[in-house]
Amino acid sequence: MKPYILVIIMTTVMSGTMIVLTSSHWLLTWIGFEMNMLAIIPILMKNYNPRAMEASTKYFLTQATASMLLMMGIIINLMFSGQWTISKIPNPIASGLITIALAMKLGMAPFHFWVPEVTQGISLPSGMILLTWQKIAPLSVLYQISPSINPKLMIPMAIASVLVGGWGGLNQTQLRKILAYSSIAHMGWMAVILAYNPTLMLLNFTIYIMMTLSTFMLFIHNSSTTMSSLSQTWNKLPLVTSLILMLMLSLGGLPPLSGFTPKWMIIQELTKNDMIILPTFMAITALLNLYFYMRLSYTTTLTMFPSANNMKMKWQFESTKKIILLPPLIITSTMLLPMTPMMSILE
Amino acid sequence: MMTYIVFILSVIFVVSFVGFSSKPSPIYGGLVLIVGGAVGCGIVLSFGGSFLGLMVFLIYLGGMLVVFGYTTAMATEQYPEVWISNKAVLGAFVMGLLSELLLACYILKDDEVDLVFEFNGMGDWVIYDTGDSGFFSEEAMGIAALYSYGTWLVIVTGWSLLTGVLVIMEVTRGN
């Protein structure tokens, strides 16, 4: 891609999200979604192989369907309330349609099938954008309409997302698919708390973005897309092995690491709302996630795979890839748990 | 009279989209899409949106004709498949029509449906008129607003069109 084109396309991706974030008018929100979706397509198919084409076609079709549903919901809302403002949606049909459209954009459970397929078909940097930046706009709209979301619609989707996100990733050996399923599961955690405490959704989202960004950056640094290539990391970048271990456990939500903060707060908030079965179920299904994160860290860090190794001194060569943002991201995505009381700044 | 026109147009609209989704050959897909688009513009016209209907007809059908020309040129066959040449396609078409008919009968029967959401009465779908000034149509005022204080909206639209062209070229240029 030519640099000029890349600049224009990246500007459009970012300004689309920014328009969604700053707009108070439903029409401009929709326009922002469309701009973002249009401009992300060339980024997804940067490699020009058939797999990437298929992935971007799938992405385009799901996002276009979701946009259409969103517009339908917006118009029904306009018919009943006569206004375009993003505020309380009095009509249950409109609110349900908008919720479903945004869930489809996010890849939540009944509409999750595109996420692993698309992520697996594109390159690692594009996947990083897809699983982090592309979630910002729909989640911000969900945050704004959170008082009008019907919990009876949202919570089953959230439960299904957590279950599918844990279950689907179990037997995967492809890193991008594993990260896609991890994203589905995290979306489930965000959706479940949305109706009760949207601030916690923001907290979970922030920490999810930091963890996913640093994981993707480590994989890019390592140029690995499969578990077996990750098992050679000890030979190539020995320090990275321990970083991947920490990041995986943080993604799984183990206590001394940042990933535990949102899970802890969400379970606490749900318990405060007199729910016992729901947080128990979510915590149990999070164990499924933890299982495949543990498997990743096991292959990377804790064992040496019996695979061919012709080059024993690779670690001596300095890597040509420099990822500047990696150190602060890794620190924030693993060591933030003691900063939990600072969460009040999100309010 | 108007109600009947809109009703007949709506029936054609739905049938054309059922036909589109069960298309046997891309040529007929393009054809039915054009029919659907034109009929949709007709519905908008019947509700008084003369400017909107005309604009959508010109722009959308202009684009669609080009696409239709390309599909015809690219996927040309001497005997393209039609709906009755394949039992599965015909079955999908008939089933789509039947389900639409059943849904319409179900709604018309007791004016109330409680499937996922409660949907009672056709009255819910009637637009409450927000009222225009009476001298100008809402469309003329909307266009005027777009080009007077809606500057940024026009800029966003223009930018999106430009990016659309760049994206299409970037996607189709190959490696």
Automatic annotation (TrEMBL), chain A:
The keyword Translocase applies. GO terms for molecular function: NADH dehydrogenase (ubiquinone) activity. Its EC number is 7.1.1.2. It is found in: Mitochondrion inner membrane. GO terms for cellular component: mitochondrial inner membrane. It comes from the Eukaryota. Keywords: Electron transport, Membrane, Mitochondrion, Mitochondrion inner membrane, NAD, Respiratory chain, Translocase, Transmembrane, Transmembrane helix, Transport, Ubiquinone. It catalyses: a ubiquinone + NADH + 5 H(+)(in) = a ubiquinol + NAD(+) + 4 H(+)(out). Residues 23-288 form the NADH:quinone oxidoreductase/Mrp antiporter transmembrane domain. It is a multi-pass membrane protein. Residues 290-343 form the NADH dehydrogenase subunit 2 C-terminal domain. GO terms for biological process: mitochondrial electron transport, NADH to ubiquinone. Belongs to the complex I subunit 2 family. Core subunit of the mitochondrial membrane respiratory chain NADH dehydrogenase (Complex I) which catalyzes electron transfer from NADH through the respiratory chain, using ubiquinone as an electron acceptor. Essential for the catalytic activity and assembly of complex I. Core subunit of respiratory chain NADH dehydrogenase (Complex I) which is composed of 45 different subunits. Interacts with TMEM242. This is NADH-ubiquinone oxidoreductase chain 2. It comes from Leptonychotes weddellii (Weddell seal).
UniProtKB/TrEMBL annotation, chain B:
It is found in: Mitochondrion inner membrane; Mitochondrion membrane. The chain crosses the membrane at residues 6-22, 27-48, 54-76, 88-109, 146-169. Gene3D superfamilies: NADH-ubiquinone/plastoquinone oxidoreductase chain 6, subunit NuoJ. Its EC number is 7.1.1.2. GO terms for cellular component: mitochondrial inner membrane. It comes from the Eukaryota. Keywords: Electron transport, Membrane, Mitochondrion, Mitochondrion inner membrane, NAD, Respiratory chain, Translocase, Transmembrane, Transmembrane helix, Transport, Ubiquinone. It is an enzyme of class 7 (translocase). It catalyses: a ubiquinone + NADH + 5 H(+)(in) = a ubiquinol + NAD(+) + 4 H(+)(out). GO terms for molecular function: NADH dehydrogenase (ubiquinone) activity. It is a multi-pass membrane protein. InterPro entries: ComplexI_Subunit6 (IPR050269), NADH_UbQ/plastoQ_OxRdtase_su6 (IPR001457), Nuo/plastoQ_OxRdtase_6_NuoJ (IPR042106). Core subunit of respiratory chain NADH dehydrogenase (Complex I) which is composed of 45 different subunits. Core subunit of the mitochondrial membrane respiratory chain NADH dehydrogenase (Complex I) which catalyzes electron transfer from NADH through the respiratory chain, using ubiquinone as an electron acceptor. Essential for the catalytic activity and assembly of complex I. PANTHER family: NADH UBIQUINONE OXIDOREDUCTASE SUBUNIT ND6, NADH-UBIQUINONE OXIDOREDUCTASE CHAIN 6. Belongs to the complex I subunit 6 family. This is NADH-ubiquinone oxidoreductase chain 6. It comes from Leptonychotes weddellii (Weddell seal).
